[in-house]
Amino acid sequence: RLCKTLQSDFYREKTDAYCLDTAAKLYPLVMGRYASSIFRLSVWLKEDVSPQLLQCAFNRVRPRFPSFSVVLKKGVFWHYLDGYNGHCSVVRDSDVPCCQIRLSAAGSVPMRVVFYKNRIGVEFFHALTDGTGALIFLKTLLGEYLRLCGENVVYDNGVLDPCAPVQACELADGFAQIKSLEKGGGMEERPALQIEGGLSFRRARAYHFVCGAEKLKERAKACGITVTALLIGYIARASFPFTKEKGKIRFQIPVNVRKFYGLQTCTNCAMFACIELEKIGEKQANQGGNEEDVYGEIERQLKEKTSKSATERGVVKAVNLVRRLRRVPLFFKRPAAKLYNAAVTKNAFTHILSNLGVARLPEAMAKHIDMLDFIIGAPSKNSGYFSCITFGDKAVLSYTTSNKRSDFEEKLLQILESDGISVTVYGGKNYEN
Fold it and tell me: Residues of the chain with pLDDT > 90: what percent?
């Protein structure tokens, strides 16, 4: 009865509006045809999806996440999110992942739920949430879908009860809750080496490198590093042959700020670290000693730059920047942000690697799942975006690119397999296969 009441209130009247959180204010400023800032999380079931039950589950879950049922609008100084209670349809996945969402269209919600055969995916414009918030939504949607299929669902491990009231902490701006004495600081945006090759905006490619999770852990442990450091090392070694002779390979690594402060927000709450590596020759990169040096340097930088103090300095810098710009009209901010993004930020990194780590589900739900994947929309440059999520015995490293050449991903596959990591590859030119 409570669930019916909450849902009827949600769909009868929706007048709430939400400020963009501190970490999200940049995304609408730089969005465009080739800078859509959309990402996807998907779950692969062991049986085909019922579109009708998925639509019903989506309808029942939406009231639990009111800050996702919104439309993006322009204010005087910032964009904001206006509540939307109109119908949102689940759609069959028929294109490459993370296609642009026309946010200017009337009633265009900056998220979508898609399905294809046994796969359920949720796509978000990054101004709504980050990977952690999206994973909570996907788990809750999956829980309600399986409940409608007859499963006895336990609300645990990040699976929320759709009938429960929305908590204020879930809608809070995480950065605004952090009180710090640290001075602002963070990444310096210098030009990084880029993967060579021409761009193809017509048909971006997406790959899933499905690896054995235990084998990755064993290999990382043997090297005395984390799995994230190991993946960065693999990607860096694959990049060396396809970049210019001099310069640095730079990785942007998102850091979940929630873990340092016990935050429960479903909004954006991530800061970024930068890992830099001097380029070395392909022959040197494949020699044992140099390989160990590369992994050791990556691990050292990860410990230093993803620590609580380093992350907090980045948060303070972001909060101070937003505070200084709060009285600058939006029609000045947006062109300035786009110009800065195109001239500086766009080429500041060779790759992005976002690792969501191990996803856990209640046993009653887990038995229905084959694997999860996480994709960041393809960039408007030669280099690519990497993302990783692990469930059960499968670690899925995903890669999106707009580069016409496929030499780099073939080299990455070769390096993984030569290191004893068995890999199954999904995707490529035709993602549906």
Answer: 65
Asked whether the beta carbons of 91 and 114 are under 8 A apart, the reply is yes
- 8 Å CB contact between 341 and 37: no
User: How far is C-alpha 94 from the geometric centre of its chain's CA atoms?
Assistant: 21
In terms of C-beta density within 10 A (0-12 exposed, 13-18 middle, 19 or more buried), how is residue 49 classed?
A: buried
Q: What is the 3-state secondary structure (H, E, C) of the chain?
A: CHHHHHHHHHHHCCCCEEECCHHHCHHHHHCECCECCEEEEEEEECCCCCHHHHHHHHHHHHHHCCCCCEEEEECCCCEEEEECCCCCCCEECCCCCCCCCCCCCCCCCCEEEEEECCEEEEEEECCCCCHHHHHHHHHHHHHHHHHHCCCCCCCCCCCCCCCCCCCHHHHCCCHHHCCCCCCCCCCCCCCCCCCCCCECCCCCEEEEEEEEHHHHHHHHHHHCCCHHHHHHHHHHHHHHHHCCCCCEEEEEEEEECHHHHCCCCCCCCEEEEEEEEECCCHHHHCCHHHHHHHHHHHHHHHHHHCCHHHHHHHHHHHHHHHHHCCCCCHHHHHHHHHHHHHHCHHHCCCEEEEEEEECCCCHHHHCCEEEEEEEECCCCCCCCEEEEEEECCEEEEEEEECECCCHHHHHHHHHHHHCCCCEEEEEECCCCC
CA angle 33, 36, 39 (to 5 degrees): 145
Look at residue 143 and tell me whether its pLDDT is greater than 80: yes
Which of left, alpha, beta for 2 (phi over 0: left; psi -120 to 50: alpha)? Answer: alpha
Sole residue written with tokens 């340097």: 297
What's this model's pTM, rounded to 2 decimal places?
Answer: 0.92
pLDDT digits (tens, 9 = 90+) for 69-78: 999 999 999 9
Mean pLDDT of 20-29: 90
What's the pLDDT score for residue 432? 43
155-198 pLDDT per residue, tens: 999 999 999 999 999 999 999 999 877 777 766 678 899 898 88
As a whole number of angstroms, the distance between CA 127 and CA 22 comes to 10
